[in-house]
Amino acid sequence: MRGLITGGAGFIGSHLCQELLARGQEVTVLDDLSTGSMANISRLKNNTHFHYVIDSVMNRPLLAELVDDSDVVFHLAAAVGVRLIVESPVRPCTPMFVPPNSCSTPPPRRRKKSAMARNSSSALEQA
């Protein structure tokens, strides 16, 4: 199984990567490092089943390609921290205001399994 983790260089995302890799799954991370860190995924970089892309989920052509290449998507990318929200209150909300038909990028070619972030390991059981 091939999983895409947006926000995978964050604390939770990097631990999810580690768990999926331990289960023998292929993992790709998409993270712009705005709140995540390369230090969180550095220990995973030697695993041949681990791949990462430093870019934003707002890069719709890239995101569409990564979703198409995945069997399941864990969307963990988010604005985190009071300081970020206070310093740039509109930036974290910008994706919510982009009309769905405003981009010429086609939607992914096939439907994907998705998992919501929760505070238990039950989401992993679905992957």
Give a short summary of the structure.
By secondary structure, the chain is an alpha/beta fold. The protein has helices spanning 11-22, 38-41, 60-68, 82-87, 122-126; strands at 2-6, 26-31, 50-54, 72-75, 113-115. The protein has 5 helices and 5 strands; from the N terminus they run βαβαβαβαβα.
Defining traits:
127 residues, alpha/beta, 5 helices, 5 strands
3D structure, described in words:
- This protein is of the alpha/beta class and 127 residues long.
- Strands 3-2-1-4-5 form a five-stranded parallel sheet, with helices on both faces.
- 28% of the residues lie in helices and 18% in strands.
- Residues 96-106 and 118-123 have low confidence and may be disordered.
- 23% of the residues are buried.
- Helix 2 (38-41) links the parallel strand 2 (26-31) and strand 3.
- The chain has five helices and five strands.
- The longest helix has 12 residues, at 11-22.
